[in-house]
Amino acid sequence: MSTRLLRRTALLITGMTLITGCGARIAPDPGSGGAANAADFPITVTNCGRPRTFHEPPQRVVTNDIGITELMFALGLQDRMAGYVLSDGQRRGVESSPFRERFEQVPHLAEEINKEVVRAANADTVFAGWKYGFSETERFTPRRLDRAGIDSYVLTESCRSGSGEKRGIMPPLQALHTDLRNLGRIFGVPERAEELISRYERTVAEAHASVPQGRPRPEVFLYDSGTSQPVTSGNGGAASQIIAKAGGHNIFADLDDSWTGVSWEAVVRADPDVILINDYGAGKTVQDKIDFLTSYPPLQRVDAVRERRFFALPYAALVEGPRNPSAVRTFTDYLWHRSK
């Protein structure tokens, strides 16, 4: 592969790339206008293909996962939250968040979500996702919450496609816009939601327009975790569309799922030009992951490993959330606009 694209001086990113700026603009506080009008209720939105009716705007929401929590903050809805649930690793990810101050203002309830945490917070609604808190094995599902008199909203990126537990029912950035519009209606701030969507669309469009035309697209492997079996993103994950909008091609874009396990043999066959690393901010560091990739014998023939083409983005930028647009811009700059 010595004649392939991206013959360039490798850029080794060994720390967390900060995703801030216009792709994650912070909305004004709810007190600035746009409060929900009780006369507008009940309202019904479509969530994971099913109608979901809210008889009044939620007042005590519990969120699970950093990207989901940042969606509430982006809409300026922190005063409607009873608290959020983040693992220790995700709490470290708050350091790179454009919403750091709002994380400090809202209670951190626990590291793992369950019915007891929700009840203790006196929550009226839970905003989570399948494998982002909701799980049959943990007996924590929207249906069980409904039986307990607690509303729920499911992150659209995590919606199940109908094929077992596979997730993904629409392009991930469309899922982001869908959730913003739904949340805007549920909380009575539709104008605020539309303003964010317009801004995010503009950020993505400007980045995508800067991709050179007529040149081969870099093949990209998203490395999330795993040593015996790697975890990556299929076409249902935000990471896959971030790669595509940045002018790259996800080597597992043909997988109809979001986050899923694959084989190292498949990675070697695809021979990616670049490896995009998911930085969780805790546990294995980006450097730990690079050290593994560069020392694992089967990968020594892979072009990205030979040439040390690694790039890292925070977890919160690679799952559905308000950091997605600026992640597109940042990864576009790496693929096409840095010094070669």
User: How many domains in all?
Assistant: 2
Radius of gyration of CA atoms, rounded to a whole number: 20 Å
Sketch the topology as an H/E string, one letter per element.
EEEHEHHEHEEHEHHEEHEEHEHHEHH
CATH top level label of the largest domain: Alpha Beta
Oligomer: single chain
> What share of the residues does DSSP label as strand, in percent?
15-25%
CATH architecture of the largest domain: 3-Layer(aba) Sandwich
| CATH fold topology of the largest domain | Rossmann fold
Contiguous uncertain segments of 5+ residues: 1-23, 30-34
Describe it for me?
The protein has 340 residues and is α/β, with parallel strands linked by helices. It folds into two domains: 178 residues, 3-Layer(aba) Sandwich (Rossmann fold), CATH 3.40.50.1980; 123 residues, Rossmann fold. The strands form four sheets. Strands 3, 4, 5, 6, 7 and 8 form a six-stranded parallel beta sheet that branches. Helix 6 runs antiparallel to helix 7 and helix 8 crosses helix 13. The radius of gyration is 20 Å and the shape is globular.
What distinguishing features does this structure have?
disordered N terminus, Rossmann fold, single chain, alpha/beta, six-stranded parallel sheet, 340 residues, globular, 2 domains, four-stranded parallel sheet
